[in-house]
């Protein structure tokens, strides 16, 4: 089988060969070391300097994380953080059988999905807004949705979702949430694992995780993870394939100093798995019946998707004394995409039978490079009865991007009896072409921030502020024009938490955000101001004493101002004014952990009310629809595993996910029905081995996950079944 177009090495075979050779060599080495074990001197292991708090075994037990650095950029117990924070651990990713970040977040409050797609994780709204994505505390490139940065779930230690405005620590972004992915990195531990997966849609995957100390004293350690996958798209004739590798090395000369150097490489080949379909035939009646969820709207001979991404960086930490600690996180990232696409554009108006789909063709070739450096000085000290954790930081990032796009009207397609007219690049030079757009954008951002966590008896006050400056330059290479934009903004957070009896910790907080609007001109020739968000939140966490269980409840309201809305004085509809405002408010409930020794649960519920409370068009008092935004969502995953007796190691899991009906189209004229789907798992652990079978949407329910407009509706994922076998030694 070929990779995309042309001849490529088979990544599945590469990863399988490497895993086999490493495993065989390491097994031989282990045998030799075992024979020498009795004569070998005993050496001490240096204590680990925690770079990623959620990755530390003392802070995470199974499904429950006790600490997180994401919420404050310091090692802070979660029950002291005055904002809602959800941590999806590697155990939860494994138990639920998640094959992407999108799937890993299915059982946290308020998360819904477009469906599986090799191109992107297509993050849904959290608290009404698209979340900003980070990896190991640094933001990934800000890209088009079809070219978003991805991390294979096998390489993830945990995923932290910090809800509400986060600009005080992380700079520009919408006020809904950030998603921070923590990688599996070298930490001085010994890792020996190899695994295989098989599933429907011809899925085949091999993976390995190898790590250990390099020297006898444990000052140097390494870790390498790799994944190779081959399979078929959910729709269409093309394969979906991936090769990813993530090596890291840690140097820890003493208990006070740690340097971890990490790199990653990922390459995806494939095509669009989910399709843009008209409302007529999906959520609205069509005289020809329902459109098949297996309909492929692309072109078998033209459509392709080839993405490469790599990163290299380091995490440095040095503790000078009992008071001062310095940390520096640095990373360079690059992503390139070559994508030929054909997609649906709604019903063809020339066909009264409503059988024909209009289609568009595009050629997308964006490139993104991003550099980030975050310097942090932390001081822990006391002033009388007060305990302080002070954080001072300076952050700089620079992103360069080019975006070359060709667009044209493609050949129509009969949705009920598809016959594919071949598409070629010649279409972009013909009469149906919309021409080429080619832009080059450079963004420089600087941020200075300070935070103090003040603890007095059972009270914890968290207060912080940040000033950001950003400079944007965008060149229209085709049009020969240039736009420059300078923005600055102050953001802050203040929160109060009470550490009560019986593991109860109520909190209240106020936080703000900002997000520059790039590449837009106002009617007066000026540039728009950044959008600004503010949130008030109150919540309650409960960690029952003696239980590995965490429950949470939160109520919040977010207002985002300076939102663009059409200029009522402009009859052409070309310009906008910044009088729009979005209000989001809701309630969130969550529970995760062990109810008994054998029974664990992950439960979530959210009720939200999101509206455009100020606008100059049909969106006034309507729900935003650019991403799925249901009013209610609920989910429950339960796992029963025997830990003793004749069934020791055997376990069963079952899940249910509910999403209420939601609005579609800008004027909310569409209604997308509610749906409920069920998941299941069976797994068995024995010495050195783990076997598991995970099934999603086990009853194969056909449902629509969302509609951006009458011409852009999406089916949710069909039933998928994946079997996994992993060997540890």
UniProtKB/TrEMBL annotation:
Signal peptide positions on this chain: 1-30
Organism of this sequence: Caballeronia hypogeia
Record key words, sorted: Cell outer membrane, Ion transport, Iron, Iron transport, Membrane, Receptor, Signal, TonB box, Transmembrane, Transmembrane beta strand, Transport
Family: Belongs to the TonB-dependent receptor family.
Domain TonB-dependent receptor-like beta-barrel: 251-698
Topology versus the membrane: Multi-pass membrane protein
Name listed for the protein in its UniProt record: Iron uptake receptor
GO MF annotations, alphabetized: siderophore uptake transmembrane transporter activity; signaling receptor activity
Lineage, opening ranks: Bacteria, Pseudomonadati, Pseudomonadota, Betaproteobacteria, Burkholderiales
InterPro entries for the chain: Beta-barrel_TonB, Beta-barrel_TonB_sf, Plug_dom, Plug_dom_sf, TonB-dep_rcpt-like, TonB_sidphr_rcpt
């Amino acid at each position: 089988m070929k990779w995309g177009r042309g001849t490529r090495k088979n990544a599945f075979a590469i990863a399988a060969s490497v895993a086999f050779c490493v495993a065989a060599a390491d097994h031989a080495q282990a045998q030799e070391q075992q024979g020498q074990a009795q004569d070998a001197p005993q050496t001490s292991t240096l204590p680990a300097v925690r770079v990623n708090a959620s990755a530390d075994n003392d802070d995470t037990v199974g499904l429950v994380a006790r600490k997180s650095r994401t919420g404050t950029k310091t090692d802070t117990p979660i029950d002291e953080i005055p904002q809602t924070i959800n941590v999806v651990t590697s155990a939860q990713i494994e138990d639920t059988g998640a094959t992407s970040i999108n799937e890993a977040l299915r059982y946290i409050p308020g998360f819904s999905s477009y469906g599986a797609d090799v191109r992107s994780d297509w993050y849904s709204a959290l608290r009404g807004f698209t979340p900003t994505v980070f990896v190991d505390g640094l933001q990934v490139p800000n890209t088009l949705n079809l070219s978003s940065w991805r991390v294979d779930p096998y390489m993830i230690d945990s995923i932290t979702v910090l809800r509400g405005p986060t600009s005080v620590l992380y700079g520009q972004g919408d006020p809904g949430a950030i998603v921070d992915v923590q990688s599996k990195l070298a930490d001085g531990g010994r890792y020996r694992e190899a695994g295989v997966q098989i599933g429907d849609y011809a899925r085949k995957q091999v993976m390995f995780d190898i790590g250990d100390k390099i020297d006898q004293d444990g000052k140097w350690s390494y870790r390498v993870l790799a994944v190779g996958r081959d399979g078929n798209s959910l729709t269409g004739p093309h394969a979906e394939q991936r090769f990813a590798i993530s090596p890291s090395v840690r140097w820890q000369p003493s208990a006070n100093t740690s340097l971890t150097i990490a790199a990653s490489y990922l390459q995806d080949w494939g095509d669009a798995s989910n399709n843009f379909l008209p409302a007529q035939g999906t959520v609205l009646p069509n005289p020809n019946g329902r459109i098949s969820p297996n309909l492929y709207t692309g072109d078998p001979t033209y459509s392709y998707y080839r993405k490469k991404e790599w990163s290299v960086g380091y995490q440095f930490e040095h503790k000078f004394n009992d008071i001062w600690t310095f940390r520096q996180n640095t990373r360079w990232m690059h992503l390139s995409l070559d994508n030929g696409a054909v997609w649906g554009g709604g019903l063809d108006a020339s066909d009264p039978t409503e059988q024909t789909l209009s289609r568009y063709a595009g050629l997308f070739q964006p490139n993104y490079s991003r550099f980030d450096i975050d310097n942090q000085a932390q001081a822990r000290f006391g002033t009388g009865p007060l305990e302080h954790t002070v954080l001072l930081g300076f952050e700089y990032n620079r992103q360069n991007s080019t975006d070359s796009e060709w667009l044209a009207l493609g050949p129509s397609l009969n949705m009920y009896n598809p016959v594919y007219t071949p598409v070629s690049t010649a279409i972009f030079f013909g009469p149906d072409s919309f021409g080429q757009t080619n832009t080059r954008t450079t963004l420089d951002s600087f941020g200075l921030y300070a935070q103090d966590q003040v603890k007095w008896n059972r009270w914890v006050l968290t207060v912080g502020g940040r000033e950001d400056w950003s400079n944007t330059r965008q060149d229209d290479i085709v049009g020969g024009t240039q736009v420059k934009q300078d923005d600055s903004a102050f953001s802050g957070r203040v929160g109060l938490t009470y550490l009560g009896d019986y593991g109860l910790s109520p909190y209240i907080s106020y936080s703000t955000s900002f997000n520059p609007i790039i590449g837009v001109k106002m009617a007066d020739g000026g540039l728009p101001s950044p959008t600004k968000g503010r949130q008030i939140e109150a919540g309650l966490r409960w960690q029952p004493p003696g239980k590995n269980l965490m429950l949470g409840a939160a109520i919040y309201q977010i207002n985002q101002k300076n939102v663009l809305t059409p200029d009522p004085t402009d009859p052409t509809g070309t310009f906008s004014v910044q009088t729009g405002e979005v209000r989001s408010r809701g309630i969130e409930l969550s529970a995760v952990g062990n109810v008994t020794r054998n029974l664990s649960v992950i439960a979530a519920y959210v009720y939200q009310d999101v509206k455009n409370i100020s606008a100059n068009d049909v969106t006034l008092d309507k729900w935003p629809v650019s991403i799925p935004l249901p009013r209610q969502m609920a989910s429950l995953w339960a796992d029963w595993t025997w830990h003793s007796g004749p069934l020791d190691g055997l376990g069963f899991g079952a899940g249910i996910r509910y999403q209420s009906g939601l609005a579609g189209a800008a004027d909310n004229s569409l209604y997308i029905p509610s749906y409920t789907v069920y998941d299941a798992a069976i797994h068995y652990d024995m010495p050195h081995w783990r076997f598991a079978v995970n099934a999603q949407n086990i009853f194969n329910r056909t449902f629509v996950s969302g509609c951006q407009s009458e011409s852009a509706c999406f089916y949710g994922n069909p039933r998928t079944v994946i079997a996994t076998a992993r060997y540890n030694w």
